[in-house]
Model the fold of this input.
Amino acid sequence: MNTSSRRTFLKSSAVLAASLPFAHLSLRAAAPDSAPNAQGGLLFDAADLPRIRANTQHPRFAKLWREMTEADLAADTQFLMHAVRYNNHVADMMRVRQIVERSSFVYVVNHDAAHLAVTKLAIRQLLNYPKWDYFLEAGKKVIGLQRASEATIALAYALDCLVDVLTPAEVAEIENNIATKGAPACFTTLYGMKYPERVKGWGFDPEDDYPQAFRVSLARWPLILNSTNLKIIPTAALGIAGVLLHGRHPQAASWLELARSSAKAFSTMYGSDGAYDEGASYWGYTTMHLAMFAETLWRRLGIDDRSLINYPGTVRYALAFTMPTQGAGFDPTHAPRNLAVPTLKVDPANDIVNFSDALTASDISIAAWVARTHRDPLAQHMAKHTAEMKTPFGLIWFDEATPSAAPEVAQQDAHLSNDIVVSRTGWAAADSVVALRSGGPSNHEHADRNSVIFKAHGERLFHDPFRAGYSYTTPRWQLRLTAAHTALLINGQGHQYHDGHEGTNASAAWARVQSFKTGPGWMTVTSEATEAYQLVLPEVQRVDRTLVYLKPDVLLILDRVSLTTAQPVQLRFQVYNDDTRGAATATGATFQITRPFAQLQASVTGLTSVICATARHDLPESEGVHPYVEATSPTATEHILLTVAAAKPAGEPSGALAVTREGARWRVQGIHRGQKLNVTIDPTDALPVITIA
Done:
């Protein structure tokens, strides 16, 4: 599909100006005089450049700025001139857009001529795409879910970065493409989500080369995506286009109205405390786009939607998920590419509580905006010290002068509004973290109700799988299921989950926190998941899980299951082995999980004898080895299982913890790493009664 006419752009910017007819859009100022920056940039002005340039020299941005300025421009040029496929939106159009975003920003900061040439070539290629996304309404109108949205935003902001080098004709052509390929596609998307009964049918573009094996049914996507990140990205793009062309395009006002309506509707996806259901990595992407729209709207038009959600609260949500570990990590990017499997590198220093499809690090760029906009010292601390800044927007927003304050001890125990619980001893790699996945369905979820993550001494000891498949046709889809989590099975079966034919959408499974308590050095929580299991196993009468976390190293897990027909129950404990350095052994009712920096010794006690065994998930060798421990409680109608797990640094001797029965009560006593323990659990009431002596 590449032709010589598509490779002539680099010869001069005049070729860009002359190669296509331009829209005759008026360049008059359109924003009201009362706006804070009515004549200025969408996200920053010339007056901000000294601060932004100083940020590029800040240690916090050293890695990001090095990656941006030292990008392989020769490889980019080769790709742009000879390899771009106009029917490949997933990979090629995304790469083109990323080049525009990166190199236009590098140019505005340091006037690098090589980056200017590459970004102009990338702009040309974006404009050459006949369609800006690979989804269609009724087989005709483009639906802007990701690529059209991202291209619209990248080009709008590039206009600011290149304001001193683009001719009026070049600006007009870019704006014309935004107005004809970007904004209408985003409008179609949001209109369909707002009025799903009017949708004639969404589907994949048959001309796009997205693999047939990964094409799912889009019949219900206007409903499904209405509460996912794929609503807020076109919302931001449509709103930014409306602001950019305000007063200069006949549809700009309607674009802006729909975008603001969509943003307001989507704001309910955040809890009152800022919690977000799709996981910490999707949180960063989504919340950043919501803020980008709000900032652009405020700067140009003086409309203030910058408190549409609890922004200070939502960065605290991200803080709760912070979980740095140790080690070298691993890099799956060199494995054969599968579009239905994420390939991000695992950086232990930026690890997170990765429930659902959350990966191994959040982009914390939004924290810099929250710190400046809301004068939030904790957000500033996060912007300086937590996770990574992965986008130019962090560089744009960060202000070293903003006051900073570290988290308080009270924030170490969090029960979020979406019923996820995280308890910790601190935020460093050496600190311990226990997390419980209670709560309801969400896009990008797994079948993981009441699953547990336990990190101690720098290591994941009870693990939640990374890089689960996004398509039911890939083997890694099984990593989404209950059996692949540190969770409970009934006769080998997990709780309700969908079959994947509509994508990674929400199931119908719920778990609900019944009790959450904290005290000096401890946390307890009980979560009930009966409903989730009853959806597939009608004989279920009760399934609940209680955690007793005795900081920093001891975790007790009480599982209670009641059935109308006798069946065995299995507990699964997943081992982190993506770097091939995890192992597990089992003997009788005990097991051990070993990692380079830490070990976990555990026992499982039931109403009858429990047997522990090790196994691995049935995945091809190319997908790695994924071991787990399974503890089996024999066939019965009533199961009460108490797991006593104790973590320690590698090489230290194990403590001595004993489990005894005193009538209906269970007692755990002993000493572990100098900590004397005496805990009594009475499981007979509706909620277990826990006494910590």
